[in-house]
Amino acid sequence: GLIMQASPVIAVQDESPAAVAGIAAGDRLVTVDGAPVGDLLSLDQQIARLIRENPNAEKPFVLRLGILRAGASDETSPESVQVEPRMPIEPSIPGREALAISTFGIAVQMTPTVAGTVPDSPAARAGLQAGDRIRKVKLLHEEQLDPKDPAADWVYGIQRTRFDRQPNLLAKMLGGKPLPPDDRMGEALNMIRDLPGGTQYEITFERGGEIQPPAVLTSVRDGGEFLPTRGMQLTPLESVYHARSWSESMKLGARQTWNDAGRIGRTLGKLVSGQISPKNLGGPGTIAVAATMEASEGTSRLLLFLTMLSANLAIVNFLPIPILDGGHMVFLAYEGIFRRPVTEHVQALLTWVGLFLILALMIFVFGLDISRIFTWMR
């Protein structure tokens, strides 16, 4: 029965109904056909039902959306925009990324602020109100959740999340800027919908700047909206190869190493081009966690992980950075082309530059590891 506020539009798909209607990133969706937006997780299904029930199928189905343009205050009257929604191609599954509203072709984020509650729902009976800010969602009776269940890591990850983090000591020293909120509110509500009815949750929330006593909510079956992803847990497709001879083992190993090297090379290219954020890098701590996870799946998975790690080290070692083998190869190539070695002064200068680059990278990935450890401990 919780209805959460949506963030302003994060992105608009090219040539989508929203793009044709002139909706842009930064605009805020306020109303749909004169009514509040309501539940974001089922919005696509609600719009799809309206399209199917369109009494005049010969004409395009049109909805009026209330839009607050970017930079407008909440007191400003929303602008009425006509949109011809489309049938959703596939259900939107909330995650750490933005939630796609595919009927309009926009992406929004579910914020931890309550927009309202469904009348006579568990949230309404627990006293949650519009304007409350969710701080934490905890699953009660965790012993009922099998640790080997694929959903276990997902559930525990959500329980470690603070949806509305406050400034920590370091942030206060730097000016008191609040830490960015975790963006797993959609995941938390999706978890509540996926787990069976009758499951109890403890909701910690804030009202008027003060933390309120935790509310215990018991989920109930919802007969109103059809959610096609409810109760489904998808797992990756895995293929297991059994070599029949040593030569086939060598061939499979070489193919795996080549594939790993290609993946690493493409990843480095996307890092340089900005397609992948440097925050996805990891140091020894991340490597240890990943190795532990792979080892828990079996010895063969651990050996495959070590193969990938070795290929990663080999490729990084041959990057054209002085102090690495790749830097020495550049010096040797220069000597082969120009028939004279790089001067000792230039070699020393570039070696120091390479050393500082490597040290800076080490400090950066160590910092990422430490921040992840604090995130896991929350």
Helical content band = 40-55%
Task: Look at the structure and give the mean pLDDT.
Answer: 82
- Strand segment tally: 13
**Measured distance between first and last alpha carbons:** 26 Å
Side by side, the strands of the main sheet go: 4-3-5-6
Q: SSE order, as H and E?
A: EEHEEHEEEEEHEHHHEEEHHHHH
Q: List the uncertain runs.
A: 166-174, 176-181
Rounded to an integer in angstroms, the radius of gyration calculated over CA atoms is 26 Å
**Count of helical stretches:** 11
Structural class: alpha+beta
Molecular shape: globular
Report the sheet-strand fraction: 15-25%
Q: Could you explain the architecture of this structure?
A:
- The chain has a 4-stranded antiparallel sheet with strand order 4-3-5-6.
- It is 40% helix and 16% strand.
- The longest helix has 34 residues, at 344-377.
- With 378 residues, the protein is an alpha+beta fold.
- Helix 7 packs across helix 9 and helix 8 (284-296) packs antiparallel against helix 9 (299-317).
- It is globular and about 80 Å long.
Gist of the model:
By secondary structure, the chain is of the alpha+beta class. The protein contains eleven helices and 13 strands.
What is the topological layout?
Elements: E1 2-6, E2 11-12, H1 17-21, E3 28-32, E4 35-36, H2 43-52, E5 63-68, E6 79-83, E7 99-101, E8 106-108, E9 110-117, H3 122-125, E10 133-139, H4 150-159, H5 169-173, H6 185-194, E11 200-207, E12 210-211, E13 215-218, H7 246-273, H8 284-296, H9 299-317, H10 325-338, H11 344-377
Antiparallel strand pairs: 1-9, 2-8, 3-4, 3-5, 5-6, 7-8, 10-11, 11-12, 11-13
